[in-house]
User: Fold this.
Amino acid sequence: MAVATRASKRPAPRSRWGRALAPYLLILPGGGWMLLFFLLPIVTLAITSLESGDFLGGFNFTWQFDNYSRGFSLYSTQFLHAVEYGGAATIVALVVSYPAAYWIAFHAGSRKSAYLLAVLLPFFVSFVIRTLSWGVLLSDNGPLFAPLKSAHLLPLDFRVLATPIAVTGGLAYTFFPFMLLPVYASLEKIDRGLVEAAQDLFSNRFEVFRRVIFPLSIPGVFAGVLLTGIPSVADYVNQDLLGGVGTTMVGRVIETQFTVSINYPLAASLAFVFMLGLLATLIIYQRIFGTEQIMGG
Amino acid sequence: MSTEKEVPYYMDPSFLRGLTQSRITRRSALQGAGAVSLAAFLAACGIGSKPTVAAHTNWVWDKATKAGVLDFANWPLYIDVVEAKGKTTYPTLEQFTKETGIKVNYSEPIQDNNSFFAKEAPILQQGQSIGYDIIVVTNGIFLTDYLAKGWLTELDPTKLPNFTQYAAPRVQARDFDPGNKFTIPWQSGFTGIGYNPALTKREITSFNDLFDPAFKGKVGMFSENQDTGNMALLGIGVKPEKSTPADWQKAADKLKTQRDQGIVRKYYDQSYIDALSKGETAISMAWSGDIFQANLSAGNNNLKFVIPNEGGVIWTDNMCIPLGASHPLDAITYMNWVYQPRIAATMAEYIEYITPVPSAQDFIKQDAAAAKAAADKASLLELSTDPAIFPTQDLLAKTSYYRVLNAAETTQWNDIFNAVIIA
Assistant:
């Protein structure tokens, strides 16, 4: 090893210490960061989730495993909602962004970056503001539905706001760039020679897509589904601003338990159930669809 | 109340005095994140000691000096306000500054009692200042909690002569804070029903109108379970103050039916008023003054407010000085100042909630007499006898205060009503 030989010419003690310490020093910032802001909170959360009592009387650590069963049975519907709306939003995002990404990658020519910028442009505005604007747009008597209603094309009590459709749509809108960008990246790096080769072998355009382009874009889709799915399952803003009765997802329940009901143990146990469920889903997902590029598996 | 009692460490006067001075902040900042998170960790684990110290009544007032600054946290749309040329000004606050030299940092961070409490309580729990000198808290579960934890500064009655002289007898004797030791009212109001006659196409009189399938998907209810719960109790014909947990369950079942039939559009916080003004809800639980203000701001909205036949809920929002407030003297000066009938009248003209100062009525009448434009005169005259500002005895008899809940009952209440509201 060249590095080792060169290093050994330096004064011996310093170099030995330096070499021994180097990996630890290199890992220190990242490791310290993880320790402080990931591991410590997780441990605190785990401890909190097993406490009993209430905020005013004080919480006490009592191995209260009951929090887990109680939380899950109280809010199983909301867990289900999270899976339903988050899953639907991910599918919608995929269906919407794949063709767009495909078109940008293969047909946008020199204007690629302009289109990508257009995709990212809304991100310059806070997503709360954007979601609120959706609320205005979809409002029962808003600019979208008022004309249709007065033309009797829609029944007067028609509404989208405060329904699961609004929540799913909001989620898909909020997170679709996270789908589009990785899909685009994987489409973009496909060797065009492969496409030509397939055509030379008498594949029609559909066959080219099915046998060459789509399989090669799977890493992007895989990453996109993760990047869209995880935040939309956990989201707690869209349902508040666009949803109504019966559209609460578990993320909102956890938030409410933390910031309104001050029931930290219940909130923590719900968060843990949610996290572990998500982790299990991810592991299964990775086993079935995973590729080496993404998870290094 | 005895003078010797068990007081949590954060009420230790020396500790508190340290808090209100800056020397402790720099030192604790230098101790760094480690110490802070360790403290949080220990607090989270429930470790900590509660030494017994002697309670010092009004020690704050021995030491307090005028700072010339006041940090006031209030609810939105809850003070007289003038918007001109894109600038928002608060006439009475400006007048206060002019008269006393105390600058008011006015902010509106309180959207509902529970989330404000949840945000500030952990800070107070750690014995730190929340950065406000006056906060406005509704009577009920959370005010009980602030009081039980000793997080409010005991007021000095000698500094509140206007309150003693002008406040309505009704607000000088209240069960939740006997003798006004810790709180004095800001405004009171009714929880009733707000509706848009153009959409309901009929007059609303009963609580049961909120359950009418004709308004399917057009009904707004409150997410704060005290209002929703107490209203539902009145709806099933039970006086909240005499209700039992069995009644609560019955009321919750009624609400659950309403929810499951798709009648409720959403459980709203303060945003219910937007939904009602935009026509997204036709009929909604509502706070009295909001309807008035919504009609003002949206122009010809013509929303109506009604206290249902079954009865309404009356509540009082209370000014209090949180423990560790940096400018208590400025705060109590303001609290006394707003009890001048002239000032109370000006505010009532803007916010149309029940004023704690009955003699404000005379000043509203004077304003009406002095008003030049006929429309102003008419509306001021109407205000001067408006039962929403100066409620009659009959009206008051029709309304109930929230059920007072102890800690165990609170948990039960929350479990019963949150099962309906969180859906």
Q: What stands out?
A: The first helix of chain B runs from residue 13 to 20. Chain B has a mean pLDDT of 84. Chain B touches chain A through 36 residues (CB under 8 Å).
